[in-house]
TrEMBL record:
Organism of provenance: Aspergillus ochraceoroseus IBT 24754
InterPro entries tied to this protein: HNH_nuc
Name of protein: HNH nuclease domain-containing protein
Domain HNH nuclease: 2-31
Biological classification of the source: Eukaryota, Fungi, Dikarya, Ascomycota, Pezizomycotina
Amino acid sequence: MGPEGTEVPQNLLCLSTIVHDLWGLARLAFEPVETSDDKTSLTMRFWWLPLRTFSIQAYPIQYVFLLLAISTQEEMPYVL
C-alpha cells in the first residue's frame, strides 16, 4: 500500500468472468494508454490476440525446455 505499493490503477483491473477466462487463455490483451494526472485512473486499449496452437509433436524439445523452465522458475533457454 502507499504511493509505491501495489494499489495502483495498473493492478486494479476488474474483469467479468468471460473476459477473465479469455485473458487467461491469452486471447486478449490490454495496453496502457494514459494515466490521469492524479494517477487514480488509467485509459487502456483493448486488443484481440490471434489464436495460436502449439503441438508437442511438432516441437518436442522446446516442450521439454518449457517444462524445465516452469519447474525451476528459470528463463527459457530457447524461444518457441
